[in-house]
Amino acid sequence: MTREATLLLIISGGLFAFFFLAIICSWFYSYFRELNTNKVRRQLVEMVSSYFKANHEIKPKVLERINAYVGRSAGRKDILIHVLIGYGPEFMDNNQEQLMEFYDAAGIKAFLIKGLHAKSDNRKSLACRYLGELKVKDTEPYILELISSKNNDVIYNVLLALSKLGDTKGFVQIFTHHSENINISSRAIIEVISVFNGSVEDLFKQTFDSSDDYIRGVLIKAAADYRIEGLRPYFVDHLKSDDKNIRIASIRALCELKDRDDERHIIPLLEDKDWEVRAAAAKELEKLGTSSSFTALEKTTGDRVWWVRHNAAKTLILIPGGKEYASRIIDGDDQYAREAIVSVIELM
Amino acid sequence: MYLLRMLIIYFSEFCMLYTIGIYTFYNGQMLIAFFDIFSYFKKMKVSDYRRYVESKNMIPISIIVPAYNEEKTIVDNIKSLLALNYYEYEIIIVNDGSNDSTKEKIINEFNLKKVNQPVMQSLATKEVLGIYRNNEYERLIFVDKLNGGKADALNAGINVSVYPIFACIDADSILENDALIKLTMLFVEKPETVAVGGIVRIANGSVIKDGKLMEMKLPKSKIATFQIVEYFRAFLTGRTSLSRLNSILIISGAFGAFNKKAVIECGGYKVNTIGEDMDIIVRLHKFMKDQKRKYRIQFLADPICWTQAPESLKDLRAQRRRWQIGLFDTLMNYKSMLFNRKYGTIGMVTLPYYWIFELIGPIVESLGYIIIPLAYLFGLLQFDSFILFIAVAFMLGTTLSMGSILLEQVTFRKYSTFKETMLLVLFALIENLGYRQLTILYRVEGIFKFRKGRHSWGTINRKQFGSKEKEKSVNM
Predict the structure, then answer these.
(1) Which terminus of chain A faces fewer neighbouring Cβ atoms within 10 Å, N or C?
(2) Which H or E run contains B445?
(3) What predicted TM-score, i.e. pTM, was given to this entire model?
(4) In this structure, are residues B78 and B140 in contact, taking their beta carbons and an 8 Å threshold?
(5) Could you give the CA distance from residue A62 to residue A51 in angstroms, rounded to a whole number?
(6) Is A35 exposed, middle or buried (0-12, 13-18, 19+ CB in 10 A)?
(7) Which residues does UniProt call coiled coil (chain B) (predicted)?
(8) What are the CA-CA distances from residue B413 to residues B7, B387, B406 (Å)?
(9) B231 near B200, Cβ under 8 Å?
(10) How many angstroms separate the Cα of B298 from the Cα of each of A295, B192, B467?
């Protein structure tokens, strides 16, 4: 027993000593690393800034200095990339040509393309991310090669990079031929589309009809925020979809266009077989509803689902003239409809 | 005498084996935690979570804050929640029949009016007396109900909430700016997620202004500093590693987010229990496994919620007793899952670990503290063996704390000065010279008071954040 205890004591003593030394070493390492990183960042900020301010004769000399300073250090390259990202998207757009020259000469483009072929998914994701942030042109085919990855972070960053590079062709290809690889949530896809640097109208038109139901629903949801008149026929058409998510997305997208003529397309959906669709129709009618919706909304305030009743009541009250119309419901026999209207009025 | 001698000898051997077992498990946990936190850091490097802060596209969330006798801090807390950086959320304050002026303060401060809002009774709760709102504060909903305990208040909040995800936050907790977004990101990235917990850190000693933590410092109170080391062990090492195995059994009641549908499906929070935060997680596991559904319950060591730790032994005792009773209660309620292969890692690893090491551990340890010195006094143990036992217990306990401090040091580095780091090391060392034994004693007391105390709440005095004089009474 004593032998085991002694052994245990030696092991724990060794671990204790190791952890103690590791704590001290890691503290000093972190401290000096931070100092060094800040120093490198300051130097690079200064050099990069002088590069962009310099005239054509001096530029190569500054570049030489930067290359000599960064050398083969991946860490310094990473800091350089962050310094460039710090200039912001506007600067990237306005100095595209100059930046592309810089990326090539400073080896950033080659470094990031090499990152796309790394074994680690994290490095691949990071390379995609940087290529997108820096808007490094002509790297789209390399990025697209990663679309078969099984890692969601890689897929997300591939989409994000292509989006920032405004690569409509690549996007269409992914949404129409590789949609089974996209296992990220609809919110993430919408977020990616929201930073798309090309023509979103073209992107939607080319993908609506040839993508699967899931992607189509997501694209319609994303399109709603852009209020593109040219997409109206698509939205109206998809109100008849068999997929309830597509119907809901189309209701929202169509109502975002705020054209009262579209009211006639939405009213029938107050009687849809799925309550989520009825609730969406009742809610969105607020944006373009007129007195033509009153009768249908009155009927919907008596719906069997609370959310549908609530949305219908709220919309009815908010449409001009609706409040007066709703007083009929308060005096009526339908208790559910009455409660829905009263609770909405109290909140106004 | 012979029997006593044999008992002591066998118990010493058992103690040694038990110690080897527990520390092997803990060190394994630490190893997993190191890998997990490092991979989380790598992931966060490529994560796009900051984009979602302003995004219309982020999952909307209902923040439920159960409140009982919180008159001194509730208004400030609501103000800090109203200022959160999140695109779409609602704050549901549930007054659980406070007998101070909590209700009046909220209504007067935010000029709330009683509304006739029907509530979907997804979960049974004590009667809701009224719902109050004001269009000027669209996000804020105040629910006044009869007293039914924290779980009942949370259930009432769930009934009133409109969004698919809800977060429960203690009325006197402070969230870091991007804590909510980091927590909800997981629901976006992994739709099978049903619950996510964030780390709870101790705010005692830190500088807090207008509901925001401005500067992190170690507390002056030694008891609170000991707890910082304890929290490192429990959260950074323990919960992180169990989360990695998708078998975490506790998400702190102070800060967690849940998929509302999943919680309603499994019956909501269990009322009349002291450990409702552990109960809901174990029940979610059981429900999902029974239904053979793919699901995920995760703990993240990064989204931070700041809370106050007890600074007096009286409060510490009440807290530890309560935790142990809650643990015992939950383990008893779900004993059918123990060693049940149907529940995978939870049934075969996590629950046995909780039973053997977390529940029974304090009893074994306290018996060790009694029997081994007795053995030495009765001449059954030689002096060098006795010293060896004491040294082993001390070293092993310290090693774990040191490992957790190292983990904190190489990852989050919240306590960044060398002096603070060394102070934490010192506290990790002296923790085993009294403090640990005290907490063990409190936990043993919790086991023995289980029947009596499982439906009651201890009262703990806390200082208000940012104030040194005022004290308030909080139901824990």
Answers:
(1) C
(2) helix B436-448
(3) 0.86
(4) yes
(5) 6
(6) exposed
(7) none
(8) 47, 36, 9
(9) yes
(10) 48, 11, 34
Q: Report H helices in B255-382.
A: 260-265, 276-290, 313-333, 344-345, 351-353, 361-377
Q: Between A and B, how many CB-CB pairs are < 8 A?
A: 117
How many C-beta neighbours within 10 Å does residue B196 have? 28
Q: pLDDT digits over B12-43, tens only?
A: 778 878 888 888 899 899 999 999 999 888 88
User: CA-to-CA distance for B77 and B254, rounded, in angstroms?
Assistant: 14
CB atoms within 10 A of CB A119: 7
Cross-strand pairs, B257 = B167, B196
No. of H helices and E strands in chain A?
A: 21, 0
SS3 content of chain A, % helix, strand, coil (to 5): 80, 0, 20
Interface of B with A in 391-420 (CB under 8 A): 391-392, 395-396, 398-399, 402-403, 405-406, 409-410, 413, 418
Among A151, A101, A111, which residue's Cα sits nearest to residue A131?
A111
In sequence order, the β-bridge partners of residue A186 are: none
Instruction: Find the closest chain A residue to B162 by CA distance.
Output: A307
pLDDT at residue B385, as a whole number: 78
The DSSP symbol for B350 reads: I
Portion 172-201 of B in contact with A at CB < 8 A: 188-189, 191
Orientation of helix B418-430 relative to helix B222-231, angle to 10°: 90
Stated as kind and residue range, the H or E segment containing B416 is none
- Number of Cβ within a 10 Å radius of residue A25: 13
Alpha-carbon span B100 to A27, nearest angstrom: 48
Backbone angles phi, psi at B352, to 5 degrees: -60, -40
| Closest Cβ opposite residue B425 in set A20, A129, A157 | A20
Locate B237 and state its tokens. 């090492």
Interface contact flag, B385 A2, Cβ < 8 Å: yes
Measured on CA atoms in the order B347, B349, B353, B356, is the torsion positive or negative?
A: positive
Q: Taking residues B360-374, what's their average pLDDT?
A: 89
- B459 forms bridges with which residues in the sheet? B475
Note whether B435 and B234 are within 8 A (CB): no
Nearest alpha carbon to residue B59 among B202, B200, B163: B163
The residues, any chain, with a CB within 8 Å of residue B20's CB and separated by 6 or more, are A4, A8
How many CA atoms within 13 Å lie on the side-chain side of A301? 30
Q: Please tell me the distance in Å from B60's CA to the nearest CA on chain A.
A: 11
C-beta atoms of B117 and A347 within 8 A: yes
Return averaged pLDDT per consecutive 10 residues of chain A, 348 residues in all.
79 92 96 96 96 91 95 94 94 92 95 96 95 95 94 92 94 89 86 92 91 92 93 95 94 95 96 95 93 93 89 93 87 82 77
How far apart CA B131 and CA B117 sit, in angstroms, is 7
- What distance in Å separates residue A151's CA from the closest CA in chain B? 12
Tokens for B311, please give them.
């600074």
Give dist(CA B209, CA B226) in Å, integer.
24
What CA dihedral angle connects B450, B452, B456 and B457, to 10 degrees? -60
- Half-sphere exposure of residue A138: CA atoms within 13 angstroms, side-chain side: 8
Q: Tell me the shortest Cα–Cα distance from A53 to chain B, in angstroms.
A: 31
- Tokens coding B219: 């507390």
